[in-house]
Amino acid sequence: MRELSLIVPTLNEAEVLPDLFKSLAGQQGVEPEVIVSDGGSEDGTPELAKSLGHDLNLSIHVITGVAGRAPQLNVGAAAASGRSVLFLHADSYFPDSHALRKGLDALDAAIARRGDDKVAGRFGLRFRRQENSPSPGYYHFECKARLDRRECIHGDQG
Questions:
Q1: Which of 3, 51, 100, 144 is the most core-located residue (most Cβ within 10 A)?
Q2: Which residues make Cβ contacts (< 8 Å) with residue 43, sequence separation at least 6?
Q3: How much is the average pLDDT of 25-41?
Q4: What's the chain's average pLDDT?
Q5: Which residues make Cβ contacts (< 8 Å) with residue 49, sequence separation at least 6?
Q6: Considering only CA atoms, which of 94, 83, 14 is closest in space to residue 50?
Q7: In whole angstroms, what is the distance from residue 57 CA to residue 17 CA?
Q8: What is the residue-wise DSSP string for 6-41?
Q9: What per-residue confidence (pLDDT) applies to 13?
Q10: What is the C-alpha separation between 23 and 98, in angstroms, rounded?
């Protein structure tokens, strides 16, 4: 059993998938299983995922099914073999090469504190911007995502 399964729902994500996969290949201290749950891409996303996985030495499993975030996540989760599961958008990336290891360690610590495995986690959020000008909207969501409060955590955080 792997320590971590990453489920990535995709639909025509060939443009952003290379950055995510390079980021995952650079992670230290964990070798995740990557499950790409594709909803019928027409841009070669499934083939690209397999090719990138091979080139970057990542464990990749591509599943093709019906489009829709929930069905794709459910099919991916059903195929996962990891002890922990991380749902991740295809346009995500980790600038910290130890982000996944730190995340798993934080989950283990939370499990130890609680005495059961009914825990969840999330990563910080930073949007890629097309221009360098300030954006109050992006800034608001990035700051809000740092709060450890209900209704402040979103799917973009994993």
A1: 100
A2: 12, 13, 14, 15
A3: 96
A4: 84
A5: 10, 17, 21, 34, 36, 38, 60, 62
A6: 14
A7: 15
A8: EEEEESS-TTTHHHHHHHHHT--S---EEEEEES--
A9: 96
A10: 11
What's the gap between Cα 26 and its chain centre? 14
Query: If we measure between CA atoms, which residue out of 79, 55, 63, 57 comes closest to residue 5?
Result: 79
pLDDT tens-place string over residues 124-156: 555 555 666 667 666 555 556 656 666 655 555
Contact 12, 45 (CB under 8 A): yes
Host H or E run for residue 60:
strand 59-64
Q: Is the pLDDT of residue 33 over 60?
A: yes
Q: Which residue has the tokens 């794709």?
A: 72
The 8-class DSSP code of residue 145 comes to H
Note the pLDDT tens digit of each residue in 49-60: 999 999 999 999
Helix (H) or strand (E) holding 4: strand 4-10
Element (H, E) at 59: strand 59-64
> What is the residue whose two structure tokens read 């499934």?
46
